[in-house]
Each structure stands twice: as structure tokens, then as C-alpha cells.
Amino acid sequence: MITLRPGKERGHANHGWLDSYHTFSFANYYDPKHINFRALRVINEDWIQPSAGFGAHSHRDMEIITYVLEGALEHKDSLGTGAVIKPGEAQRMSAGTGITHSEFNHSATDPVHLLQIWIIPDTQGITPSYEQKAFPLEEKLGKLRLIAAKDGREGAVKIHQDVDLYTSVLAAGDRIVHKLNPNRYAWLQVAQGEAKLNDYHLQAGDAVAASQVKLLDISTDKGAEILLFDLA
């Protein structure tokens, strides 16, 4: 079964300095039909204006992944981490027993465009931790690159949940086939461009949830950047 989640139906909040679209219920946006998908709890697509951002705030018991599409995001946290996240990198923050952080657009002139992803961990009360890795573009061109996984295999950042997160950058004419094992679920998010999943035509911001499907046939006529979650 494949279910479409149109990007135009997402929750939306424009605060001036922040323009945000919510795939799942978040903050003042609540939709009982879209609370989460398996352990996937949040996908927010954010545009943050130059020199603006989120002041210090706290999280508990959540795996938070930041994936920058354009621009650069500056991060500071109560672990003493200071970092700048750029396109091609994945940042993972395990909030565990509690962590405080801030996020700001690193540029004084250009907006930053990013996806912030929350995954419900399989264990609560873990020690907070931070990880950030770069994944070269050539490793994602026309193929799936694992960027986050429970076992941290293939150089992916390690998350505390049975979820494999892949990303890919597809050129016009590219095609990827992903086998979905029995009792596994998939969520495909189109970050940029246009893609096709089986018989579904998808625009940037669109997503599909898949279950009881053996093969995911992903292609594009115009080019796309996608994120694929393979979930327990």
C-alpha cells in the first residue's frame, strides 16, 4: 500500500524570520491523521532568514537529524559543540536525558534551507550526544547513500532506532530500485526537484508512505534530491 502526502497539504507557519512546512503535527499545527509514521515523528522544511534562528531551547528523548539543502546552519549546544552544517552533511543529535541547543543561519546575506527530522528513539534516558559527517556528492549521484542507521554502518551517523535513512541526488533519466524487506515500511520525501515513485508523480515537498510493497521504483525526468526512510 502506498499513501501520498502532498506537500501543499502540510502544516505551514510563517514567522517572518522563519518559513516552515510541517509534514507531521508540530507546534500549533495538529492533524490527527498525520502525527507520525512509525518512529518518524517530525519532518520540518525550514527557510531561515539571514542571521536569524532558534535561540537556546531544550529537547529530551528524541533523535534529531538536520539535513541542509542550501546555505549553512550554525549549531551550539550544552555539550560544548560548536559547528556549521552545510549541504552534503548530516547532523545527528541524541537528546536523551536532556540537551539545550541553538541554531542560527550562519550567513548575514543568504537564507538557509533545511530539513529537520525527529525520530522517536528505541531507548529513553540515554546520555546526550552529537555527531556530524559529510557525504560527498559523488556518493549520492544516481544511487542511494546511507547517511543514518542504528548500527552506523557504511560511515553513517548512528541513531538509536531501527531506521535506515538514505539520500540520493538524481539527474534526469536516473532510476533507483529499493527492495523493502517483509515487515519493513518506507517513507520517501522529495527534498528538491521532481520524482516518480512507482505510479506516483511527486513534486518538491511531496512524500509517500509505503507498506506491504516489495519494490520501490524511483525515477525522475527532471532531476531530484530525495530522502528515503526504511523503518521497522
Automatic annotation (TrEMBL):
MF terms in GO: dioxygenase activity; metal ion binding
Cofactor note: Binds 1 Fe cation per subunit.
Entries under Gene3D superfamilies matching the protein: Jelly Rolls (2.60.120.10)
Residues in Quercetin 2,3-dioxygenase C-terminal cupin domain copies: 146-231
Domain Pirin N-terminal: 9-119
PANTHER family, per database record: QUERCETIN 2,3-DIOXYGENASE
Cofactor(s) required for function per UniProt: Fe cation
A Pfam family of this chain: Pirin
Residues reported to bind Fe cation: H57, H59, H101, E103
Alphabetical keyword list: Dioxygenase, Iron, Metal-binding, Oxidoreductase
Signal peptide per UniProt: none
SUPFAM superfamilies for this protein: RmlC-like cupins
Family: Belongs to the pirin family.
Annotated coiled-coil segments of the chain: none
Protein's name in the database: Quercetin 2,3-dioxygenase
